[in-house]
Amino acid sequence: MHKFYQTFIRFLAALLVLASSTAWSQSKTVTGVVTAADDGTSIPGVNVLEKGTSSGTVTDANGAYSISIGSTSTLVFSFVGYASQEIVVGDQSTINVSLGSDVTALSEVVIIGYGQTTLRDATGAVAAVKASDFNAGVISSPEQLIQGKTAGVQMTTTSGAPGAGVEIRIRGTSSIRSNNNPLFVVDGVPLSGGTQPAAADVGYGTTADTNPLNFLNPSDIESINILKDASATAIYGSRGANGVVIITTKSGKGNKGTFDFASSVSIASPANRFDLLNRSEFLDGVDQFGGDPVAQDGGSDTDWQDYITRTSVSHKQNLSFSKGFQTASIRASLGYEDQQGIIEHSSQKRFTGKVNASKALLDNKLNFDLSVTYSNVRREDPPISGNAGFAGDLLGAAYSANPTWPTDPDFNTGGQRSPANMLQYFQSEGTTNRFINNLSADYKLSPALTAKATYGLDWSKGDRVTLVSGDAINAGDGVRDFGQGQLNENRTISNLLELTLNYNKNVGNVQIDLVGGYSVQSFRNDYYWAAGRGFTDFSNFGSMESELRAS
């Protein structure tokens, strides 16, 4: 038996030696040089990776590499701007590789300033996100399409309310006192404002401005390009100091007319809840800290978080028609969205209409492009504010409210605000109508020289009426028994005229692209507000609103 074990151990040792010698014999060193297919120059920094492993190397300054791998392995050669190659090693010990340009990636068109270029020729920091790369799911605002898609771009909303304002920071904050949002350009027209006025302070604080892009239907957007640095934004002057976001909408395609209809329904509910005291816990706490539970007992057991929040149901519908002709194209769309917030009395309803059309004449020498956008946005906001003071807004009132209070809005709460009273006797509604038009014509003076003229119009009118009834308790000084209301209006109109000449020609391996021209944009912003007092109950809100508008 002892001899058997000795023989068995010698046999295992022989197998291990044979396996190791076989593996060693299969391992080999492969060397070579990587060059560019178009001009034969060496390419430094090329990644050379053994497929299926983390073993690899990179080429040196002369494009040379050396790697130790198995004879059955496959080498993967990759470099930015070049098409990757995979080569089976086999019996080869020297593998020279010629990488061709990745034409698809380098030829991707990006919009910059007064025209467009390719990633190969772009000199500035430009990020382009196409429709195929947009975020999926329920999208209510254009910036949500590219959230998390581009490096150096941070996007946050000011609140979770429908249509809430958005903060976009490109490569950080550049000013500690001024607006840090970038310039938005939609179909060639720089936006001039047009946001809906914030809710006025009628005792509960003011709300933040609305999203400057909420007039756009995300389903109409073809691409979003972000210009990040000075060379990319210089053409817009100081307005591009915080970067530029260029939004291009869809145009007509296909020889056959195509109708598309999409409808969706979404459900939302509060993600988190605070663990607040119920009736018995609250009264026990009052007694524990020396208070009078009888005096604090309102006779009810109310979950105020549940009272002011809801499970909301939102829906949207989009209908579009697209068709391409031999010398023309057209795309028209209609969209409607009803977005309900999870807080009572919070909502946004948006209707949009969009037409993009183009026509070529004179053997495609003369081209006309038309883009028209109309939107109607209606919002309702509850009394929620970041500057409501120590008394609190609706959320603060709900978190601090006595759980024994009933949901009767006229219940006397003493010195605190009742969430039921705030919801019943506060109203803030606003409407924004916006019209954006861009008409351009370009003519080829020669194969290399093109003249272009563009006229753009951005017109908007936004208003908001904020009212609090005289029945409101602890709303603010002078509100009780009198009521208070305020009408705010923004009227903005901008006219844009651009005349440009573009010279584009290839001379050997050199591409010449020159742009020169003249641009002028005028702005007019009229702000109007009116305040009134003297109505006692909710039934007078309608007449009070009419009086404010008449004033």
Distance between the termini: 114 Å
- The count of strands amounts to 25
Strand content: 35-45%
Number of helices: 9
Outline type: globular
Class based on secondary structure composition and strand pairing: mainly beta
Number of folding domains?
2
Largest sheet: 9 strands, antiparallel
Question: Kindly state the mean pLDDT as a whole number?
Answer: 82
Poorly predicted regions are: 14-25
Helix content: 10-25%
Q: Give the strand order, joined by hyphens, for the main sheet.
A: 17-18-19-20-21-22-23-24-25
Rg on CA atoms, Å:
33 Å
Describe this structure in words.
The protein is built from nine helices and 25 strands. Strand 22 and strand 23 (about 450-470) form a beta hairpin. Residues about 15-25 have low confidence and may be disordered. It is mainly β and about 550 residues long. The longest helix is centred in the N-terminal third of the chain and has 25 residues, at about 1-25. The strands form six sheets. The chain has a nine-stranded antiparallel beta sheet with strand order 17-18-19-20-21-22-23-24-25. It folds into two domains: about 25-100, Sandwich (Immunoglobulin-like), CATH 2.60.40.1120; about 220-550, no CATH class. It has helices at about 1-25, 105, 230-235, 280-290, 295, 305-310, 395-400, 420-425, 540-550; strands at about 25-35, 45-50, 55-60, 65-70, 75-80, 80-90, 95-100, 110, 115-120, 125-130, 155, 165-170, 185, 190, 220-225, 245-250, 260-270, 310-325, 330-340, 345-360, 365-380, 425-445, 450-470, 485-505, 510-535. Helix content is about 15%, strand content about 45%. The radius of gyration is 33 Å and the shape is globular.
